[in-house]
Structure formats: structure tokens, C-alpha cells
Sequence to fold (531 residues):
Amino acid sequence: MSPLLLLLLLLAAVYSEFTPPENSTGLKFTVAFPENIAHYHPVRPQNKVQITALYDDTEVNIKSSTYSSTNPILNEGESKEYISDTRLELWKTGVSDHSVQIISNKQITVHAIHLKHNSVQTALVLPTNKLGTEYLIPPVPKIQGTTLPADIVTPDVPERGPFKLIIINGDKENKVTVEGIETEEVSLKPNQIWVKEDKALRTVKANEPVAVLFGHTCAIQHNCTCGQLYAMLPPATEEKLKFYIPPILAKNIEGESFVLLSDKQSTKVKPFDPDSPLVEIAGTAIFYRPGLLLTLIPETDFAACYVVNSIPDTESSALIVVHQDLTDGVHVGSVPLENPDWQKLKGTEYVSTLVGLASDKSVIWHGSSKMAVYFVGTKGSASFGNPAAIISKSPDFRGCVLSPEVIKIGEVANGWRESLKYCKDQTMELISFPEAQLQRQVSKKIFQANDDSLKEVWIGMRRSSQSGEWYWLNTAPVNDTNWEDGEPGTVHDGQCAIMSLEKDKDFGWSDEDCCKAARPVCYTKPIFLPI
Fold:
């Protein structure tokens, strides 16, 4: 692969100040559990949430209109499952306030599970501060026995009932409008829910952010069985997006697969063609196969680190989509992905693979690029899945980033000692990067941000006045170096290290008079999720 392609795929821009990555983590979540008729079994559903803490001393409070529970403290990287009150299952119609609020003192991810007999559906729950005010409603899939024109739709036969929207309000008074053949408007109280039958609906618009679920209480799967079918919709966008659909999703299943497409002008149910796995639309794309509605991840939302939670007593897997030239960078936990069966997405530069999950939680991350990761599973004949929880969009060869490294080039050219003080005054350090991989990662980020006006910068290395040996300010051993040819000179030459930013010098170092005026590279280390 060419160095230019690697550069474009490898790195993010230099941070002039800390900016939190776009992710699925938050402090407050509202969860709803749709009706689950499931295989005609007259038993109560089991509704639960899986919570993953990113930091130590994370306290989680789960409450609803009927109960409240403060749970034990979670440590960083710890996942725990909580069974919710079964009385919270939403029934057929009407306005209900049966929702669950999850509040924590530190960042968490939330995975919702709806289970009844062999009917399982899952959803990645977004925090309330990352919800949207407009959603595009996908078209209803063609399901024999449920939605095809020959089926008789009657409220007395639930598997032939209509698809529904579940609109979950946030923590503010809100006015919500659904538009389609008919337009309807309702005022919702904080955390209230509106269950709305989908009568050719096109959009949901709200004054304040809401979450929107789309699905069916008992969609026919096969062999005269039905199961719950739901997906959480993403907020609307006007940007044209690319969706890469792994053909493995449609492999070895009974029944046809579709892609449900909706933008602001139209909706379309498109049979899925494994030979054309790329879909482009300025809207929403949902993959359907019997028993599964899967919200697809656009390329713009690919990320570097995900948490994938498995479900006990099911076959749980992670589905990974990554650039074909960067498969070596995928890790599951602390080790590179072992012996994956990569399958080409025809006509694209991407490949995919399915990885079995052996534990209740897996951290899947890439050391130099971004990718898409889904949770998918089966229980008996039932399928289920959802996009995995994004922890970070910042690739780093050392692991899963909670807070990315911060690199700042000083505004003023000064001597090495003054530059050292400047970085300390910013609560940063004059950069020490003893590892070759870190040198490449940092140097290329600086190169991306530089407009060619900056030729050289101070780094945190200098010569000892006592021994004449070079040392790093952070006391790391001097092993991997990048001295230019003929550098460094003797002890009688420069005592401080400066790095070139000129393209033809490959970010080489040279010794320099410590009083020379140059700008510093200040640095703050990243924080990583334990894996």
C-alpha cells in the first residue's frame, strides 16, 4: 500500500485542544421495551440492559415510574447485566410513560435486550444528549404472512398487525409530529412514550430530541412462527452516505433479504444483492432478513474502538467491516484478530468477517484506522443484532482510546528551555516519543496539520551535561531514534534535539543550539480502556 494511502486512512487531525470523540457513551439514557408476543408463548418477557463502565467508581441508578434501584459501583471496563421490571413492556396502542431512565456519574454504554422464549431483539441505546429531532421512517419490509398485500391486516391477528413506531421522549416537555399520508401531533411529558401505528409514515419531527424505534410485535419468520422485530433509527441527515453491507448477513438463511431505504424524497424496499453490497443515500438504510432489522453504519460513522456485549445462552458474534489493506490492525482484546476468514465486498475496497464472542464483553479496536462493528446473534431459529457501541473514533496503536492524545504546536518560536516551560504552563509536556510507532503516529499527525510554513520543532530530548548521553524528558530509554544522516554531532555540538517537518527529511532529528528560536510540540498522553 502506498504511503499516501496509509496516511489518509491512518490518522486524524492534530488536536489544538481536547475534543471528545463522537461515541455511544453518556451519563443519561432512556430505554423502552416494546411488546413481544413471540412464538405465541403466553409467558412474560425478560427485558434487561447491559451496562459497560469506562472508568472506576461508576455509580449507576436505574429507575422508572414503578421502581428505582441504585446498583453497585462498577470499575473501568466492567460490564454488568440488569433485569428490568417486566411490567414495563409496552402494550398495543396509546400513550404510555413506561420507560426506564439510566443515570450514571461517569461515562457508560447501554445495550438493551428484549427476550421471550426464542424471540430476541437487541438495541444500542444512545444517551439522551446524542438523540435527534428529525427521523426518516423506513418502508415496511415485505414479509410473507405479515405485510404482503395478500395478508389480511386485522387487530385480532397480531402477526398480521401493522408495523409501529415507538417515540421515546427525552427529559423535556416536547411537541412531536409524525408526517405521512396523515399528519398527527402530540405533546409529550419528560420520558413519555408515544406508540404510533405506521400508516405510510415518512418522518418524525420534534422540538426536543427523541429516540425512535421501528418494528413489529410478532413478524412471521418461518415454519409458522413469529418473533419481535425492532430497530432503533438514526437521526436524519442530508449528507449522502455510503453503507457497506456484508454479504454474510444474507448467507444460509430462509427467506429473502432487503435493504430499506428512505430519504426526504422517497422510500424504497430494495432486494439485497451480494454482488452490489454498497448502497449510497442521503438518508437511512436498514438491512432486513427474516427475524432481523439491522441499522447500517455509514462510512462517516466508522470508528476505531467498540465494545460488543454478548448475551448468555445465545450464539453471539461480532461482524467487522474494514479496509482490505488494513486487516492486520484489528484487535480483539489485547491480541490481533487470529485467523479471520475475510470475505471481499464486491466492487469495494472493504472486507468483512464474523468473530465469535467468548466472553460477556469484548473490546474490538483498530490500531491505525476506522472500521464498522456490529453485534449479531442467534437463539434457536431467531436472529438479532445492532450496531456495536462506539467508544472512540481515534485510532491508536496502543489500544482503545477513551481520551485521545493531544498534540499542540506552540504559537511562539523560542529557545528549548522556554519551550519546555511553555508546555508545562499548558499542563502538557514537551513531547517525548521513544517508540518508533509513536514517532510515526505523532509525526504524521503534525504533517497533516502543517501548512508547510513550519520547518522544524523542538522535541523533549536533550544531551546530559554530565555524561554527554541523550535522554528523554519522560525518562524512557533511548532505543528507537530517527537521527538524520550525520546526526547527532559530538558533545561540542548542539545540546537539544529538534525535528524537521520538511517532506524530504522524513521527520528526522538533529542536534541544535538550545537557544535557537523554534516552536515546541506539546503533548498530553491518551487514556485507554482496559482490554
Observations:
- The first strand starts at residue 26 and ends at 31.
- The two ends are 29 Å apart (CA to CA).
